[in-house]
Hints:
Blueprint lengths: L1 H7 L3 E4 L2 E4 H5 L1 H5 L8 E5 L5 H12 L4 H4 L4 H4 L14 H6 L6 E4 L9 H4 L3 E6 L2 H14 L9 H9 L8 H11 L5 E5 H6 L1 H11 L6 H10 L2 H6 L35 H14 L12
Parallel strand pairs: 3-4, 3-5, 5-6
Antiparallel strand pairs: 1-2
Helix pairs in contact: 4-14, 13-14
Bound molecules: adenosine-3'-5'-diphosphate (A3P).
Adenosine-3'-5'-diphosphate binds next to α4, α9 and α15.
Amino acid sequence: DVDFKKMMRLKLDYINGIPFLQFICKNWEKIWNFQARSDDLLICTYPKAGTTWIQEIVDLIQNDGDIKRCQRAPCHDRVPFIELMTPLSFKSGVEQASEMPSPRVLKSHIPIQLLPPSFWEHNCKVIYVARNAKDNLVSYFHFGRMNQGMPDPGTWPEFFETFLAGEVSWGPWHDHVKGWWEAREHHRILYLFYEDMKENPAREIRKVMQFLEKDLDEKILEKIAHHSSFQTMKENPMANFSTMPSFIFDQSISPFMRKGTVGDWKTHFTVAQNERFNEDYTKKMAGTSLTFRTEL
Length: 296
Ligand code: A3P
């Protein structure tokens, strides 16, 4: 059993200096040539920034808060993950998307410089969710422990260093959030923050609603806020990834819906790690107007 688990753990390779899972690199041509459609909505995030959460919110808005309808399929079937390529017999994200009728909602973690150009050519709308680096790192660590298809994160101090070096799938957090932040001035991008969504879900859901040009009344908005809350999503089999086989997502190690809070980094970072993190952060985030809250 242990050997089997080791075999499962995929390795990283590079595309233009950015680490990706090997199967993504091998199929990069197909991903780069992805054919977007002008009515596609792209949800883009750094991994573990709240992708599943915003996906659920978008689906609820598009379906006028119809809970049943939003439970028609697991989140990973409702929203194709465009760069997903695995050695398993699952459909690739590109295939899954190409078979889907419009209007589509698509998911990606691709840093802006590597986004398939077709999205820009069609001027697609993008919702980007960013989460503060410290909580994002903690969440990524636990996800690496449970997701047997990703490289083994090692111990907490090991993964802490790997993350700071940007040697994780989809590359460095800092460049990712900055790249998409700068692009919002020139493209149809709604840039949201996990911390804002936690602080005032209704306010952020309203922003998404306006961006999608939907007009729903307050009652429905409240309903959407309730059904996209952490607790409700944790119990929703169509949102909590319990539909993924446990040999891939081993939720006995760490549940996909783990904590869903702001500030969990405080239970992980040592004082020394925090100092080291802050020093590195100041350098890498110098000169950007982008700021984050690490507690509420
Ligand atoms: P934690 O590991 O900190 O709990 P992604 O969907 O991008 O993979 O992100 C997963 C993270 O978002 C996990 O963070 C998960 O618990 C959190 N999350 C998912 N749904 C949420 C919700 N409705 N409210 C708050 N956090 C949520």
